[in-house]
Write a structure and sequence with these properties.
heterodimer, A: 287 residues, seven-stranded mixed β-sheet, five-stranded antiparallel β-sheet, 24% strand, B: 252 residues, alpha/beta, Rossmann fold, AAA+_ATPase (chain B)
């Protein structure tokens, strides 16, 4: 990885609270190339906040600091909102967990995709319409003309998520941040959505940050995995080595899952240790 | 313990009636743990809601502990026998009622005596200390809330627990704790479980037998070991198993 798309060093996100400063992200560093990078952790581990910080979506009074946060060699740390708007969508995009809350309920699907495309490309309506239909086809929606004129409540969850992906990809971003993109979906639809994202990464050479709580899914889908605990990356490894993880937290997460191929009487319960909070740098293997 | 025969459940009126469950039949013996699996919209939760009288119109036969139920009304005795735990512990607890109030109200409604002592015992049995008694839901984590919801269900000392995705809103490490708790409670109290989940691994871990549902119909019933070994009869059950256990890349 000689030329990373995104390079982050010592990223910190903090929020003032009544009981003092709360640090949601405490010194995260990584480089993203043209690859599928998985970010795994439990709720509250700071994985979503890392994604939001990259997009400049942390609202005040939350504070983002970093030694470095570079997109293609340019710093994007705490850019003014007007500059950030030009980047967001055009160069970095985000797909959120639940399409029900991220699509505008009173605009047709087609209008929404066209809006995001026209904003970033400056193209006219006709070109945008063609692009929107193309994008819907690219995410394997069988009847794009019908879906184009449909409202979000008229499509299923899986289709909604594919529409979100279509919208995010219309301006052709270099980086896609997907925050639990398949957690709200059924397994059969989930695999379809993953396949679409997979294809886009391999065909367009996009960098994908895949945020998820599902270790096994990430191991199968991604190239490299960061495991987060209490705002820090505790372990980094190649996805294929996940089952040889060395950090007790990663091992604990893996062991606490019930498995179809292995029957146990009781599930192993994770015993958290205070020392995990202050362990830097992350364990690395194979990556 | 529970017998469901030719159950149909529908919502709305003709001509826009939606059939959520069609001709579902299964039975669960006392002390058994039975799973209902399927994708969203397959009708698995609707069956539980029909049993407890929460679903719209239904026809067929539902028998709990040898007694048939009808319509939407359920007797006092029914609620002493059957209790339900819901998916979302963030939504199923009243935000302005303390744990103490949630439990004492339930115990009172069930006509129990020695409410004070019972609350202490309930909290102990779900692994929450006495210190949690006067807390409010927002002062509890998701796992702790689900423990309170389980304690509330146990307050009536039921024999049949209906579990609707009890751990799908929780982190995997917390899921393990709650599943262990449920297994222990079943063993200690000789409970019967009917558990709805979209997670095949969770159902295989918790249940003796299960039914696979699709589009409101029961596609297949099987013992958990059959599911594990991948020897399901129907193609749909095998597909579901394949889809949930792995994602395969098409590109290299």
């Amino acid at each position: 990885m000689s030329d990373p798309l995104l390079s982050i060093r010592d990223l910190r996100v903090s929020f003032p609270t009544r009981s003092g400063l709360f640090q949601a992200v405490r010194g995260v560093s990584f480089d993203l190339g043209r690859e599928r990078l998985g970010v795994v952790g439990e709720s509250g581990s700071g994985k979503s906040m890392t994604g939001r910080a990259i997009l400049g979506l942390v609202r005040p009074p939350g504070k983002v600091t970093a030694e470095r946060m570079d997109l293609g060699g340019q710093s994007i740390l705490n850019l003014p909102e007007s500059k950030m708007r030009a980047l967001r969508g055009a160069r970095i995009s985000m797909v959120m967990q639940d399409p029900k809350f991220s699509l505008n309920p009173v605009m047709t699907v087609g209008q929404q995709i066209m809006e995001s495309y026209r904003l970033h490309s400056g193209q006219g309506g006709r070109a945008a319409r063609d692009k929107a239909l193309d994008m819907l086809r690219a995410v394997q929606i069988r009847d794009p003309e019908r879906v184009f004129d449909a409202y979000p409540h008229e499509v299923s969850g899986g289709m909604g998520q594919r529409i979100m992906i279509a919208m995010m990809l219309a301006p052709d971003p270099e980086i896609l941040i997907a925050d639990e993109p398949t957690s709200a979906l059924d397994v059969s639809v989930r695999n379809e959505v993953l396949r679409i994202m997979d294809k886009l990464v391999t065909e367009r050479g996009m960098g994908l940050i895949f945020i998820s709580h599902d270790l096994n899914l990430v191991a199968q889908f991604c190239d490299r995995v960061l495991i987060m605990y209490a705002g820090q990356v505790v372990e980094e490894l190649a996805a294929k080595d996940l089952h040889n993880a060395r950090h007790p937290y990663t091992q604990g997460l893996l062991n606490s899952l019930p498995r179809l191929d292995h029957q146990v009487d009781r599930l192993a319960v994770l015993q958290r240790q205070d020392s995990w909070r202050d362990q830097t740098p992350p364990l690395r293997s194979g990556a | 313990m529970l017998k469901v025969e030719n159950l149909d459940v529908w919502f709305g009126d003709l001509p826009e009636r939606v059939h959520a469950v069609r001709q579902a039949s299964f039975s669960v013996a006392a002390g058994e743990s039975f799973g209902l699996v399927g994708e969203s919209g397959s009708g698995k939760s609707t069956i539980l809601r029909a049993i407890t009288g929460l679903a719209g119109g239904w026809s067929g036969r539902i028998e709990v502990a040898g007694e048939a139920v009808s319509g939407r009304h359920r007797s006092r005795a029914f609620h002493k026998t059957v209790q339900m735990v819901f998916q979302d512990p963030y939504a199923s607890l009243h935000p302005r009622h303390s744990v103490d109030r949630v439990l004492s109200e339930t115990l009172h409604l069930q006509g129990m005596d020695q409410i004070d002592a019972r609350i202490t015992r309930l909290l102990d049995s779900v692994g929450l200390g006495r210190g949690f008694r006067f807390r409010y839901p927002h002062q509890l984590s998701g796992g702790q809330r689900q423990r309170v919801a389980i304690a509330r269900a146990l307050a009536a000392e039921p024999r049949l627990l209906l579990l609707d995705e009890p751990t799908s809103a929780l982190d995997v490490s917390v899921q393990a704790e709650i599943l262990n708790l449920l297994s222990d409670l079943r063993k200690d109290r000789g409970l019967t479980f009917v558990m709805v989940s979209h997670d095949l691994a969770v159902v295989a871990h918790m249940c003796d037998r299960l039914a696979v549902m699709r589009g409101g119909e029961v596609v297949e019933q099987m013992a958990a070991p059959v599911l594990r070994s991948g020897q399901a009869h129907s193609a749909y059950a095998r597909d579901l198993l394949a889809a949930s256990s792995s994602y395969r890349r098409e590109s290299a």
